[in-house]
Amino acid sequence: MGGERVRYELTAALTGHSWDLTAGDRPPRLLLAAMERGEEYVSQRVADQLDQFWRLVLAPSWPRLRSRLENDITARSTAVTRDGLIPVIDQLSPKLRWRDGGLDLTNTHEITVRSDATIFVPSVFATTVLFCAGEPDGSPDPRRPLLVYPALPEPPAQPEQVDELIGPTRASLLAELSQPRTTGELAERVHLSPATVSYHLQILHRAGLLRRTRRSRSVLYQRLPGRTPASSA
């Protein structure tokens, strides 16, 4: 991100955009304290925090998240080729409708934008359609309007494919986790050491296949809905 863009974003965070000066909340205290150390410090601090967020939160699950996004783009593109653009847009959300070459989005208020000026972005985090307005041509590196929509759900793995994808030991653990169980309980049921079970549970949890909750001094694992592998020996 260039220096001019950083300055533009910081100015907007502190005082609002020149084209939208609606009153907002007071800037966060941490931002104000960082600003006292200069724009270069703020820019580097933001970059470091984004890098840490990527490594700790997104990177472990990125292959699965990327696959879901790519599957959505492929499915939508195929539908546009087969049925045309209008039906696909209408299916994104009941709040979104095509009208006379533009898009009507009804949320807290109505917004109308040209379809050819809007970038459609699938998201694995959004639960409804979100619209991010564009910016005037005078702003540095102006952002085009974005319409963010929920990506299609991840298709469930077929039971006969689970062993091949994750191996028989982990498939067996998943089969045992239709209800919450501790590491010790699982170890007894599958006749493995607690250390071995714990190792495989960490991998399954990072892959997004398990829910982990704490109850008193125990940690319980349970298979997430839709993960229904066949039991393996």
Short description:
The chain is α+β, with helices and mostly antiparallel strands and 233 residues long.
How would you characterize the overall build of this protein?
With 233 residues, the protein is an alpha+beta fold. Helix content is 46%, strand content 17%. It is built from nine helices and eight strands. Helix 6 crosses helix 7. The relative contact order is 0.09. The C terminus is likely disordered.
List keywords for this structure.
233 residues; alpha+beta; 9 helices; 3-stranded mixed β-sheet; 3-stranded antiparallel β-sheet; flat
Helical fraction: 40-55%
Residue runs with pLDDT of under 50 for 5 or more positions: 228-233
H/E element string? HHHHHEEEEEEHHHHEE
Biggest sheet features: 3 strands, antiparallel
Count of beta strands: 8
The helix tally amounts to 9
Morphology call = flat
Percent strand equals 15-25%
Distance between the termini: 53 Å
Taking Cα atoms only, what radius of gyration do you get, to the nearest Å?
24 Å
Strand order of the largest sheet: 1-2-3
Given helix and strand content, the structural type is: alpha+beta
Mean pLDDT: 78
Q: Topology, pairings included?
A:
Elements: H1 3-15, H2 29-35, H3 39-58, H4 62-83, H5 85-92, E1 96-99, E2 102-106, E3 110-114, E4 119-123, E5 130-132, E6 146-150, H6 159-166, H7 168-176, H8 183-190, H9 194-206, E7 210-215, E8 218-223
Parallel strand pairs: 4-6
Antiparallel strand pairs: 1-2, 2-3, 5-6, 7-8
Helix pairs in contact: 4-5, 6-7, 7-9, 8-9
